[in-house]
Amino acid sequence: MEPAAHATASGTWLLGGDLPVHRLGFGAMRLPQHGAALVENAVPMDRDRAISVLRKAVDLGVNHIDTAAFYFSPLRSANELINSALGGPYPDDLVIATKVGPARDLSGAWSEHARTPAALRAQVEENLRQLGRDRLDVVNLRVLGTDSIAERFGALADLRQAGLIRHLGLSNVTPDQLAEARTIAPVVCVQNMYGIGVRPEYEEFVRHCGEQGIAFVPFYAIAAAARETGVTATEHDEVLAVAEGHGASPAQVRIAWTLHQGPHLLAIPGTGDPAHLAANVAAGSLRLTPEDLTRLDRAHRAAAA
To answer: Which residues are catalytic?
Structure first.
């Protein structure tokens, strides 16, 4: 594989029917710090390095960035870095998706999840301020638990009607919660944890989203069970074998497998390393054979055994 591949090689999805995005995007969670994300004592990322990664991502054709106001470390905020690196003005084709619900105080400690219309509006307005925008392209409601989301999603639908949000999505939800939300307002994407060996029981849900024209955006598709630490656990033999056959890394194979699950799958691997960024983008041009997919599907389903 050539490491200088362009994100256009991953294909394009029309998000919400009017926002064309390359299917290989960028997740900003890893950008504000070294090591584990979303912890109080994180070591801040070098500012110039973080900004260079964002600009390189856009240079490589990435036009879909996933972020959140709660992605920050001491001294660094993902939203502020995005604004500084790419704003003034932003590229016309750049789509920035953010999420609301989780909350952290100024020390970085987790605080009460936003569940009221007032709390959710405050989070939306904070994202607008940090990103320097008058309207957010996509806002995902991040959910904890399986209870009704009608009031929370309805509050975001009102903000969409008011012009503060262009499109709405959901994160960490069940099929029933998706169905409930769709009775309130259109849902353009679902962002759930999914990847090789991670929640194989979601296959039907993933397929259902595609049938409804809803993008499915997996998170932790590379890190898998390691989640926000970003440290991949011992790799499955099938993944290693496919990677060796293509002269690729296991991470690239995991990204490619994600994209092979349907045209509505959008990958958002994140990194603060320019070399990793180039490798991640290059994974969008990796074409897996039917034999490769059979082997990887075996690894995927082994998690359910």
So the answer is: 71
Angle at 18 between CA 16 and CA 22, to 5 degrees: 85
Beta-sheet pairing, 189-191 with 165-171: parallel
The Cα–Cα gap between 191 and 211 comes to: 16
Could you read off the pLDDT of 231-246 as tens digits, one per residue?
A: 555 899 999 999 999 9
**Which pLDDT does position 223 carry in this prediction?**
65
- Rounded CA-CA distance 129/126 in Å is 5
Chain segment 261-291, per-residue pLDDT in tens: 999 999 999 999 999 999 999 999 999 999 9
Strands 64-66 and 26-27: parallel
Query: Which of 301, 226, 218 has the alpha carbon at shortest distance from 256?
Result: 218
Distant-in-sequence, close-in-space partners of 151: CB < 8 Å, separation ≥ 6: 115, 116, 117
Do the Cβ atoms of 288 and 242 come closer than 8 Å? yes
For 111-132, give one letter per residue: b (16+ CB within 10 A) or e: eeebeeeebbbebbebbbebbb
Is the link from the previous residue into 89 a cis peptide, with omega within 30 of 0?
yes
Residue 227: C-alpha distances to residues 38, 51, 282 (Å): 11, 24, 22
pLDDT per position as a tens digit, 129-152: 999 999 999 999 999 999 999 999
Residue 3's pLDDT is 45
CA distances from 277 to 35, 172, 254, 261 (A): 16, 25, 14, 22
